[in-house]
Amino acid sequence: QDVLQVGEELPSDPYYCQLEAESCRIFTEQLGRFTLVGESLSMAAAKRLKLLLFAPVCCTTLEYSIRVYCMDDTQDVLKEVMQVERQLGGRLIDEPQVLLFKDSYHNLRLSIHDMPLAHWRSKLLAGYQEIPFYHIWSGSQRSLHCTFTLERISLSTCELACRLCVWQVEGEGQSFSIDFNIAKDSRPLDSEFLCSDSSAPALAGPSAFQIPYLIRQKICSSLDAPCPRGVDWRLLAQRLQLDR
């Protein structure tokens, strides 16, 4: 059920939504599950995505597969992909990359270039792979990915250097360099990326409030009453840039 429309809240509503540049906070009188739904106002709008590259931890064959995930930039989706890759025997081969995906109705294309042809070749018949626009924009498919299967000429070949290109049709693209040794794994642990969330940790129990109770009471009583000079909650919200 619809419980709130941002910007049209009423004081009597049991919910409040604080929408900021990089986060959204929902205040509610009771716990529950909520979904934030919105739509872009123009084709200039972009959705922030994360690109993750995975490859086998151990490879004893001539074929070597690189999986490129295109997913929403949230910690829960990242954890899901990590769990899937652990079951597949995969591991991150580069730091997650940010991709801004525009609301232009154009698909996302991915391709691999600049491989040392004397040692590697691509088994992909087409020049690129493509992910449909609506599969990405809707966010309903959480682990979208493309697989690039490469073949090394000899088992002694362990160095792989190439370039991954990602772009929307008729749009600007991004390229990422890939350079690593498939036999000697010196990449960072996957757990480092799971702990890279920049949001503040949630506090619970006695440490949830750092200000003593009596001082909190005094702050509330001094800010609750509207003041002609504006020295109340309104000014505090304005200084915190939370006065929407």
Descriptive tags:
about 240 residues, alpha+beta, Immunoglobulin-like, 3 domains, 6-stranded antiparallel sheet, 4-stranded antiparallel sheet, 12 strands
Give your account of this protein's structure.
This is Netrin receptor UNC5A. This protein folds into 3 domains: 37 residues, no CATH class; 150 residues, Immunoglobulin-like (Sandwich); 41 residues, no CATH class. The protein contains 5 helices and 12 strands. The model has no long low-confidence stretch (mean pLDDT 83). It starts with 14 loop residues before the first strand and ends in a 5-residue tail after the last helix. By secondary structure, it is α+β, with helices and mostly antiparallel strands. The strands form 3 sheets. Strands 3, 4, 5, 6, 8 and 10 form a 6-stranded antiparallel sheet that branches.
Helix-strand blueprint:
Layout: E1 15-19, E2 24-28, E3 46-56, E4 63-72, H1 75-88, E5 90-92, E6 97-102, E7 108-113, E8 120-122, E9 129-131, H2 133-137, E10 144-152, E11 159-168, E12 173-181, H3 190-194, H4 213-224, H5 233-239
Antiparallel strand pairs: 1-2, 3-4, 3-5, 3-6, 4-10, 7-9, 7-11, 8-10, 11-12
Pfam family, one: UPA
Protein name: Netrin receptor UNC5A
GO biological process, one term: anterior/posterior axon guidance
Integer count of domains: 3
The global form is elongated
The CATH class of the largest domain is identified as Mainly Beta
- Please tell me the overall pLDDT: 83
Structural class: alpha+beta
- Architecture (CATH level 2) name of the largest domain: Sandwich
> Do you know the CATH topology of the largest domain?
Immunoglobulin-like
Give the uncertain stretches in residue-range form: none
User: End-to-end distance, in Å?
Assistant: 24 Å
Strand percentage:
25-35%
Number of DSSP-assigned strands: 12
Q: How many separate helices?
A: 5
Helical fraction: 10-25%
Radius of gyration: 24 Å
